[in-house]
Amino acid sequence: MLPAGERVQMRIDGELVKELDIRASFLTILYAQRGQVLDRPSRSYVIQGIPRSVVKQWVVMTLGHDTYHRSWPKEFKDSFFEETGEELQKVHPIKTVRDAVLSRHPVIAKCQNHHTDIFDLMYLEAEAMVRAMLQLKRAYEIPSLTVHDSIIVRERDMCAAAEAVARSFKSVCDVEPEFGKWTRPGSVSA
Known about the structure:
alpha+beta; 8 helices; four-stranded antiparallel beta sheet; 2 domains; Alpha-Beta Plaits
């Protein structure tokens, strides 16, 4: 729960740490549940003409809701305005974003006969991460911390962590994860 600026200073046993994250974890799991494979998770929130943060916000809020939203959440509109000086609904109407995202990721469509429960996706992601942490602890005595879809370990333990997370994610979610860059906590990864 530490802010990124504080996580960057963390140590485990006095050693610097790195963070390994799974790209587009929820979308990767959702595709796997539908018997499909998410092509290039690193680019799953990239839609021409729409900022990545807007696409990701729409995906996350839609996965956790039974219907499509008709407006952007106030907090997101406010933060978008603070960052860009533009009114979100004017420059990226929610219906336009919805149509673009559904064109790119039809598995999210509410009209399909699949109920998408964000809590199921959260559970699977958490189960995979807990299994990876337990493998690291029991098999290698490697301490780790987790932040949703990422794991934080000592720099020297990154390879073992990547292998454990990949095994656990495949076992729990039936799909291979794509990892972002191995970064120092709090730094930006693609």
